[in-house]
Amino acid sequence: MTALAQEWLQEQGVKSTIAAPPVQQTDGSVDYLSASSSAIHHHIITLAGAVPALPHEFERAIQWITAVDADFDQPEFLLSLGIFGDPDYFATRHLAAETRAVLNLAMFVAFGFGAQWLFRKMTRKARHRFDGLPMETVKDRLRVIAVRFALAFGATGAFLLGSVIALFALDWGPALRDIALGFLIVYVAIRIAIGTGDLLLAPDNERFRIIPTNATAARFWCRRLTVFAGWFALAWVIVQECGALGFSLAGVQLVGYTLGLGVVALALEAVWRRPAAPREVAEGASAETRYFGRAAANIAASIGIVIMWLCRVAAPGVTSVLPAFWLVLVLILLPPAISVSRRAVEHLLRPAASAQTGGPPSVIEVSLEHGIRALLIIAAVAVLAWVGMWISFTSPAGTRCLQTLSTAC
Questions:
Q1: Domains: count for the chain
Q2: Which class for 274: exposed (0-12), middle (13-18), buried (19 or more C-beta within 10 A)?
Q3: Are 75 and 69 in contact (CB under 8 A)?
Q4: What is the distance between the alpha carbons of residues 182 and 177, in angstroms, rounded to a whole number?
Q5: Per-residue pLDDT tens for 182-230?
Q6: Mean pLDDT over residues 284-313, rounded?
Q7: Distance (Å, rounded) from C-alpha 73 to C-alpha 79?
Q8: Which residues span the domain enclosing 160?
Q9: Which of 90, 170, 358, 387 has the fewest other C-beta atoms within 10 Å?
Q10: Does residue 406 belong to any structural domain of this protein?
Q11: What is the pLDDT of residue 233?
Q12: Does residue 366 sit within a domain?
């Protein structure tokens, strides 16, 4: 029916029987992309506006740290730590606050390293007998791995236990407690990285190596893993302390993104300077395509690392990332994880004297290899599925669905 006919019917008092066309609802994915792009745009504008004010925030934090108290003629930050006296307790306590703070720090360090020393002393005989353990059969190798795992992470666990006891048992000021907790986080992260690298790669003893590789590659990856874990933990502690020093949310984000560039630099350096795998060394001299494949893999990994950092920067919030971050992370880590797990299983489950007598893999080896591969793929799919569910529930359509369900319940 034309518009002229509808107008004539309305003048005659006749109601139109033709229903109005239904309102078309936009697709949920379109709503999500529109909302996400708007949020990213607003986030980038906010960060750009906070860049000129970032030096002033550092100046304000430095002024607070170095500000001198008029009554005690000491920095206020050190007074808050209790290092140069506390005006509330100085006149009534025989022991000055600075002495208590120094004793707390000394006891914190003593409890942690003392527990670690005690664990190593208790396991000294086991360490001495460790080099003589046989490694011929699969059972022998698995037993050695279990013992090395207990020795490697037992010392770290002892240090963590002693430090936590001191952290909860002693009377700490809020600022001093944050410093001690930050030191504990960084040290434990470094020790876990060292223990993991030594357990998997054993750079100083080839017979204990789980992942088969040469000594150069083992030392390379152990050092990079330790530096990466230490830098990541230190950056996290610095970001937390910036928030405690009164930085704005945008300022904390800028500091975190800048420190994240260090993580990107470490990852890129590891990708491009990584030693060639034994298989690449054997085939690289006779196959030019092998070198092209390595270069292409390095370029792809580098692009993925940069994209992950951009997804970190574009996401609003201090610890949030865009969903594409997890997709790129899975694409980068899943193939080498499958390859490394396959090589480790082949190395651990090899029969005795397999270097001299070759043969097909055993049923246990094939089953374990395929099982680990399936677990890795399932874990990757679970991460991506979780990200997809998060996108669905945070999109406008998902929000409306949750509101409808909550109303119905």
A1: 1
A2: middle
A3: yes
A4: 9
A5: 888 899 999 999 999 998 998 888 888 889 888 899 999 999 999 999 9
A6: 76
A7: 10
A8: 67-247
A9: 358
A10: no
A11: 92
A12: no
